[in-house]
Write a structure and sequence with these properties.
homodimer; alpha+beta; 8-stranded mixed beta sheet; 12 helices; about 20% helix; globular
Chain lengths: ~425, ~425
């Protein structure tokens, strides 16, 4: 994707909160979400700018947006916009950048019309950004796969198919919730290795998984493939994703068909979909295979993807326990990784998914799988951070954690930054563990 | 479920084609589907009766249906009706039985009004009956699990969790198609055990799987469970389901997260949803565990389910090859099994699914898993019938099959019958294999 005026580091918004150095939502970002306010219970599409939301339905009605995207901007979910495809997405972004830029929208009548469409973020409740049809979860971090494999099969951590196949499986769409939704500790069948029989009880080894979620654009028809060279254009944007996991349930249930009730009780995503165009300045080469790694098969190989399919995106996990919350402490960062350590690119995940003719649709969500990196503090879940509970996390207030306790809040944060580009934030993905009922 | 007048064996319809002994759709069945006609491209809900479809939108508009269900009957899909719950389903069924019964709707004005809502089946194109949100596929036949396990692990065919957990996993919703849709042979990564590397090529070991699909009714809220005693009331009805499978893709990809591209290129269902109420006369005891089998955990145990949770439903698979079609031959039956051999009941599958608080929604589809029985001719897929291709099927015209060839059509049929009850048919689930593209 070509960089253009919407990426220009020097441009500022006339909304001053967007120009603060650490704002997640500067003029160069412009992510999309769905919100509602107490004043209007309708679900509305908005674009985030600083601490404001531009109500796109209102902007469309005011005649401020391109005709080709205005109907989609009036919908209660992003699916119709996702279906329009990359040229329409670019046109909308360019127009929003123009309307919100201090250089391109000087004080005057037009700025007043735009102002009338702004809503303070603090007055908005964020909703799921899209009607998610199918949700697929991948396993694209070789560090995560190796760590988890080491616990199960120390002599042979990585399965033989890992370096050939972007391993993935279908997840549950109905239980995807938006950031801020409390998540109940599930019951499940638990069977310690030395017990003769399982019991049905609240999960003990409750975990989070740090992932990136990617929303699909127009998609493909059933029976048709998406070539890797066209896959990047099918990606609308990304969110933070927490793939909550009941590890003890997973251990006992997952053979032979994969995780099921260990995962499908809840998945949390952040509300703002940061577009691939906003992230264009942060593309980096795909994972560098070493001599022992096979080259991907031709359908998973594309020169542009190899050169620029990776994403330099910092991803952090914070933990806030109930005790810390009472003590007024700040959330404690327990890991910081980067998406560029993923073995497969987002485009490879998408091209592989459609390689058998499986039809992808606007609003489908692809989870990357747990984002872990080569270093210890880059591990993206408690299972890895505590090495199955054998090395508990020590928290600043003196508490320890092997897995999550009731009342614990997990906060995912993400941002892209590099010299010469404006920092782009993903916002937050939060969820607090409720006790089992 | 109590039997009532709608099950009365002696009652007849004034639509004579419904009274033929082998009709799938007698007055006692009244399954629901969605259709359209050349005359009206709208998707319409209908009930099948003999060789006719009663257009329920038209019937509702004519004031013939109960007020509580009329709005749902005017929708283009069954979801709203599924959401209404068992009492509303019963009320609609009772009313349809009355309108279509020769005793309850004698010749006259009312019969004429009903007649005006009838459409010949031959003029209708059947569509998917519901907007399927999430599709889950189970593995509830112990005979299937044992056969497949025997091929992979002769010394230990059944995994230790099988008799405790109704094993299931999430499938793909977008690629579910209605009977009659041709299915393209997928490409995928194939790796013979002795090859150093996989290749991306058309699947060679193309298979079908005979399953029953069950549609969910009102469902549950996220974080709440559905007790087994209430699970049967959550089941709206069943269809035939063909879980097409690329066995060679599956072998290479399925570790550690389960089948993915081997399955998600297409799943075919029959168009008529036969209600659980229509099948009430055919309930039988759940699978009889022997002394070596553990009793299910309490959340999977209910006296009524044990006594009546099984379903005496005959399921058949027919194969029609291109050569047979050219020669004018009839489809050849390659297996005949019965759903009463399933280890887990449909209600147990549903209660287990919601046991961690996973929210089920109207229109969600639960696949039973391949229905295989204790006898050789009860095996529900080619993998089992040909024992992984080692014992090819011999067809009447002299052809042999290890797996499916291009042009092969698989036809699933199902029906319930017993002395003292009217035969209830599921109709057909058909699909022809197209060559890879």
């Amino acid at each position: 994707m070509m960089l253009n005026q919407t990426h220009d580091l020097t441009r500022r918004s006339w909304i001053e909160s967007a120009n603060v150095a650490d704002s997640d939502f500067p003029l160069q970002n412009l992510p999309y979400g769905v919100f509602r306010t107490a004043a209007d219970p309708s679900a509305l599409i908005g674009a985030a700018i600083g601490d404001r939301i531009l109500d796109l339905r209102a902007a469309a009605r005011a005649g401020l947006l391109p005709d080709a995207v205005s109907p989609a901007c009036g919908q209660p979910e992003l699916n119709a916009l996702m279906a329009l495809g990359a040229p329409a997405w670019s046109a909308l972004r360019a127009r929003l950048s123009e309307l919100l830029g201090s250089d391109t929208c000087p004080e005057g009548e037009q700025r007043a019309r735009v102002s009338a469409c702004l809503v303070p973020m603090r007055d908005a409740e964020m909703l799921l950004p899209a009607r998610i049809g199918d949700y697929t979860d991948f396993y694209a971090s070789i560090h995560h796969a190796t760590n988890v494999g080491s616990m199960l099969r120390p002599e042979n951590p990585l399965l033989p198919n890992y370096k050939w196949i972007p391993i993935g499986y279908h997840g549950r769409g109905s239980s995807i919730v938006v950031s801020g939704t409390a998540v109940r500790r599930p019951h499940g069948q638990l069977k310690p290795a030395d017990a003769p029989a399982p019991v049905f009880a609240p999960c003990k080894n409750f975990d989070y998984e740090l992932e990136l979620g990617a929303f699909v654009g127009p998609g493909n028809r059933l029976g048709e493939r998406i070539p890797l060279a066209q896959a990047a254009n099918q990606l609308f944007g990304v969110v933070l994703l927490n793939d909550w996991s009941a590890r003890d349930v997973q251990t006992w249930e997952y053979q032979p068909l994969g995780p099921f009730l260990a995962k499908n009780f809840a998945t949390t995503i952040s509300p703002w979909v940061v577009t691939m165009e906003a992230l264009a300045p942060f593309h980096v080469p795909a994972f560098k295979r070493d001599g022992a790694d096979p080259a991907p098969l031709p359908y998973l190989t594309d020169a542009t993807d190899t050169a620029r399919g990776g994403l330099n995106l910092t991803l952090e996990v914070y933990l806030l326990t109930a005790q810390m919350r009472l003590a007024g402490q700040a959330p404690h960062r327990i890991s910081r990784g980067n998406f560029q350590h993923m073995y497969w690119t987002l485009a490879q995940l998408l091209a592989h998914h459609a390689s058998n003719g499986c039809n992808l649709q606007p609003g489908d969500l692809l989870g990357s799988g747990t984002v872990s990196g080569p270093e210890r503090d880059m591990r993206g879940c408690m299972l890895e951070l505590t090495w199955r509970g054998t090395e508990p996390l020590k928290l600043p207030g003196g508490e320890e954690r092997k897995f999550l306790a009731d009342g614990d809040e997990i906060i995912l944060r993400g941002y892209a930054e590099r010299p010469g580009a404006r920092r782009i934030g993903l916002g937050e993905c939060r969820g607090t563990v409720l006790p089992a009922n």
